[in-house]
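Why predict the complex rather than its parts? Because the way molecules touch one another can change local conformation, and only a joint prediction can capture that. The input here totals 386 residues.
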Amino acid sequence: MRLKLPEFLLRPWRTLSSPSRYLSLGFLTLGGFAAGVIFWGGFNTVLEATNQEQFCVGCHEMNTNVYEELKQTIHFTNRSGVRATCPDCHVPHEWTDKIARKMQASKEVWGKIFGTINTRDKFVAMRRELAEHEWARLKANNSLECRNCHSTESMDITKQGARAARVHERYLFTGERTCIDCHKGIAHQLPNMDGVQPGWSEVSSEKGTIGHWLAGEVK
Amino acid sequence: MRLYHLALLAALPCLLVPALLSAQNTGSVNTGSVKIDSPFRPPVQFTDEVTPPQIPADVTDDRRVARNYPEQPPVIPHNVRDYQLNLNTNRCLTCHSRQYTEAVQAPMISITHYLDREGQTLGAVSPRRYFCMQCHVPQTTAQPLVPNTFQTIDSMISRPSAGGAGQ
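Output of the joint prediction:
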């Protein structure tokens, strides 16, 4: 038995599936191409416009809380004048990852519309949860956004303090830990850190603690 | 009180301030040499604009500095920029508290920091000792503005006594 489709579906389908009667093939292909360029260009322009700090701090939630905090830190003000903007750390640079993140960000639009963090008190109360999301994201992608600028290849550990150099050599270069494990709260204030252990405190059982290694007991 | 009394009172600052300023300027000119009335103040008039000295560099060589006297809070020999020390978190204690000292080989905070003011030992850092940088401070390469004649107890002990009774 065949189900008959309703008329309002059949009519557009017939129009689409039948050959063009009045428009030339050249117009349709070139016009389609031009329309594609316009639509794709427009889409990408809007996408990039939402990927700028000006857009991020357009909301008072970002402007008065996290952006103010960022301004104090070394990722905003430093001797060389290079600085990180919001999307440098919070949006992946690769296109597919970026689109995935942008789709997740629709949750943030929801939050904006319904005022989830529209006061300082609400923001402070939610800070731990929001921070945990970012920690989990950076942990999952192996601190990708940190590594867009800070690469292990270019890291000259002879220029670092002795402690930092040894910890980086032992845990970063071996891939055992990632940036965010130790470097939390580098660009914003931290939430209540109850129960959050520092990255160097977790004991990797089979290889011993960093302490033995720092003290030079483990070869 | 009449109205002109009030008016006179209101006009008093306008009359006095230029007089004082000129008095101060002429005073410094008349004496010729610059008078320093406080060791904490550079020899300039408060009306002068001076170029501030450069901000000195931090000492971050990670080498422990000897205390000048036993009760001195040890100074911080590393960079502390952006360290967060507040109700939510204490960056210093992520290395210097008892349980993390092994992991990072940092010196443990003294046991006195676990005592409350009645002398009772607590399981964690006493709230009155929580804000590390009230006592422990980083150092810069700045030269002291004020000469210091402090002598350590060791130099006092080894000094021959004034009465000549010493050995």
